[in-house]
Amino acid sequence: MSIQIVPLTDPHPSASSRRLVWLAVGGDGVPLGSAFLRLFDTEGQDHLAELELSVHPAERRRGVGSELLARAVAGVVGEGRRCVLAQAVAGTPGDHFLADRGFRKVLTLTYVRLVLAHTVADTAAGRPVAGYRLRSWEGTVPDELAATFTASRRAMDDMPMDDTDYGLVVWDVERVRAAARAVEDRGERLYTVAAVDESDGSIAGFTELVVPGDGKGDGQHYGTGVLPEHRGRGLARWMKAEMIRQVRERHPDLTGLLADTAESNTRMRAVNDALGYRPTHRTFQYQLDL
């Protein structure tokens, strides 16, 4: 089988990452598959690349995936990165493909969904916590909260990642604002609920949700974190319950909310269970060390 690998240009590089892209085509010019290699360029993650590789089902087992993977690995080496991550749904051809080509399984993610039309959890599962108040906003963080919200991002630093060499995401105010702008540029809506420590006005934790621009379909949780010194009080459950209440009120046509959590993150899985989220599938994160 004749396979040609065509490099493409990423039309939308960001301040924190860029992509190398390859398209596999047959001798007749018909696309067979593609590979997207995301290269992180920020401090703490500049050793890392993420790979998304797909081959049309009718073209599998004909060497297309192997050709694309070889090109992507060469790109990783050429960029001086030490590891590449890739994700596959458990039990799928992609799962077996990565395992057979030297990738090692480093993380298991459980995906869950809350059916908004059927949920009865409402806000009862998240009760107010003495000494804290909730603050909410849409889009970019308000200026008066920008510094403390940025500081609160370290709540995600010890998020369970098992054996993944994910590095450390270093946040500043501009990166926080850029992330919000990226969601807006895609035509989606970003909502944040934060827990504020009433003793000093600092943000102790937050949860984020992205909703399609038309308010229909499923929303996607982007992250929930509580600073270590504020954990064990029920803040995560309170914030997520308030987010559910708000989004149901704002977007009555929204059908569900999606989240993914490391299987080893038992605390956040317990929060999701209490709020009525139910498992849909599992994925494995694989890592190739170079």
Question: Please, could you describe this protein's structure?
Answer:
The structure is a single chain. Helix 5 crosses helix 6. This protein has 290 residues and is α+β, with helices and mostly antiparallel strands. The radius of gyration is 21 Å and the shape is globular. It is built from 6 helices and 12 strands. Strands 1-2-3-4-5-12-6-11-10-9-8-7 form a 12-stranded mixed sheet, with helices on both faces. Helix 5 links the parallel strand 10 and strand 11. The model has no long low-confidence stretch (mean pLDDT 94).
Brief description of this entry?
This protein has 290 residues and is of the alpha+beta class.
Residue stretches low in confidence (pLDDT < 50, at least 5 long) are: none
SS summary, helix count:
6
Helix content range: 10-25%
Radius of gyration: 21 Å
Write the H/E string, N to C: EEEEHEHEEHHEEEHEHE
The N- to C-terminal Cα distance equals 29 Å
